[in-house]
Amino acid sequence: MAMKIRLARGGSKKRPFYSIVATDSRMPRDGRFLEKLGSYNPLLPKDSEERVKMDMERVKHWLDQGAQPTDRVARFLEAAGVKDKTERANLKKGEPGKAAQDRAKKRADREAAAAEAANAPAEEAAAEAPAETSAE
Fold first, then answer.
1. Long-range contacts for 77-84 (Cβ within 8 Å, ≥24 apart)?
2. Is residue 32 within 8 Å of 22, Cβ to Cβ?
3. Which residues cross the membrane (predicted)?
4. Of 62, 122, 127, 130, which has the highest C-beta tally within 10 A?
5. Distance of CA 3 to the CA centre of its chain
């Protein structure tokens, strides 16, 4: 049986509250679980002790049994010092969507055209100015 330590959502609409549970990976997110290991309340401030509460003894037990934590739970365990910090490769981080890329390209083209237009009259004026002074 593939075991997971993951979050099960509770709370009402727009007011999330999560339970940290040990469950079979085939069960639904908020479905049947084997044991509740703690809780996570994302609405509390990040420095609050009540934000993440876990029974570390039971978490270690499930990790020894082969349970795999999800990414979010793994971060909680890293912060608690139970698990070694792992390097993550977020390949899509900072990459805007197609529409945003198109808007950025159009904006860059407009700015380049405006810069060329601003430089062109200055160059013409500079070219005409020495011609007038030499005529005197």
1. 79/52, 80/52, 80/54, 80/56, 82/56
2. no
3. none
4. 62
5. 26
Structural tokens at position 57: 């003894």
Per-position pLDDT tens, the chain of length 136: 689 999 999 999 999 999 999 999 888 888 888 999 999 999 999 898 899 999 999 999 999 999 999 889 999 999 888 888 887 777 667 778 899 999 999 999 999 998 888 887 666 666 665 555 555 5
CB count in 10 Å sphere of residue 36: 14
Is this prediction's pTM over 0.70? no
The backbone torsions φ and ψ at residue 98, rounded to the nearest 5 degrees and listed phi first, read -60, -45
- The residue among 21, 20, 16 whose CA lies nearest residue 43 is 16
Nearest Cα residue to 15 out of 42, 35, 52? 42
CATH architecture of 3-80: 2-Layer Sandwich (3.30)
Mark out the alpha helices in the chain (DSSP H runs): 56-64, 71-80, 98-135
* Alpha-carbon distances, residue 103 vs 92, 99, 110, 115 (angstroms): 19, 6, 11, 18
Residue indicated by tokens 């805007």: 96
- C-alpha radius of gyration, the chain, whole number: 29
